[in-house]
Structures are given as C-alpha cells and as structure tokens.
TrEMBL record:
<protein>
    <recommendedName>
        <fullName>UPF0386 protein ATE48_11535</fullName>
    </recommendedName>
</protein>
<dbReference type="Pfam" id="PF09857">
    <property type="entry name" value="YjhX_toxin"/>
</dbReference>
<comment type="similarity">
    <text>Belongs to the UPF0386 family.</text>
</comment>
<dbReference type="InterPro" id="IPR018654">
    <property type="entry name" value="YjhX_toxin"/>
</dbReference>
C-alpha cells in the first residue's frame, strides 16, 4: 500500500501509544489537530492534510468524541521502524 513518509511517521507514533487530539468549529468540522506521542511530544509531521488522508483510509478512528487512535487497518499498514530507545 502506498503511504507517504509523513503518514508513516504519524502511524508509527500512534502505534506506539500516541493520539491525535482535534478541535472543531461551530459547524462541527475539524479545523485543528495535534498529534501527541506517548511521551507527550507534539509531532510536527502530522498536518490536517495527513490527518484527513489517514481518516479517509480508515487507519485512524475516534470513539465517543475522544482522541483519534490507530485501527487494525492502520497497524497492518505501518511498516516496522527501529525505535531509538
């Protein structure tokens, strides 16, 4: 599956326990997002465009208006990366 470098970085951060927090406007449209990794750092590669592509492909999902998390489809799409810990 074709996944861009930015989508891959975002999915990898989410697979390790991160979340995407969103803000909506008065009409209910998502206008701002923050991708936070498990350590509390903000991921700059996760833009609104990347977020919309991941959501359209069903790689991320929100439950009960909570933060967006990775789905099983997202886990199967992400490639393994070395973790520099």
């Amino acid at each position: 599956m074709n996944i861009s470098k930015y989508e891959q970085r975002t999915l990898h951060a989410l697979a390790q326990g991160g979340a995407i927090h969103h803000r909506k406007n008065e009409k209910g449209d998502i206008v701002e997002i923050d991708c936070i990794n498990r350590d509390g750092w903000r991921l700059a590669d996760c833009t609104l465009h990347v977020f919309k592509k991941l959501r359209r492909r069903h790689f991320i999902r929100s439950e009960n208006s909570g933060p967006y998390r990775i789905t099983r489809e997202g886990l199967s799409a992400v490639r393994a990366q070395l973790d520099n810990r």
